[in-house]
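S1.2 Input.
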Amino acid sequence: MYQRLKTEKPRELQGYIDADYTWDLDQRRSMTGYVSMVAECVISWKAELQDMVALLTTEAEYMVAVEASKEIL
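S1.3 Output.
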């Protein structure tokens, strides 16, 4: 499931985030990813295992939301 982050005006900045809880069963880290787009053109993206272990799905989603927000700023 993707969560959409978007400014008030259409076609300015769009962002999509996703975290797959405990994707890596050996290390118990979640897969995380985000993409930032302006006028439907990708300007930034990232997909990797999270640095820390998330104990809840919500925690994994918050971690990726913080990383995506820092990248956008």
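S1.4 Remarks. The helical segments are 57-72.
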